[in-house]
Amino acid sequence: MSDFARSATTQGSHTPLLRGVVYIHSCPRALMSHVEWALASTLGPGARLDWDSQPVLSGTHRADLGYKAPAGTAGRLASELRTFPGLRFEITQEPHGSVEGERYAFTPSLGVYRAAMGPHGDVLINEERLRGALARADSGANLADEINALLGAAWDAELEAFRYAGEGAAVRWMHEVG
Question: Is the pTM of this model over 0.90?
Answer without folding.
Answer: no
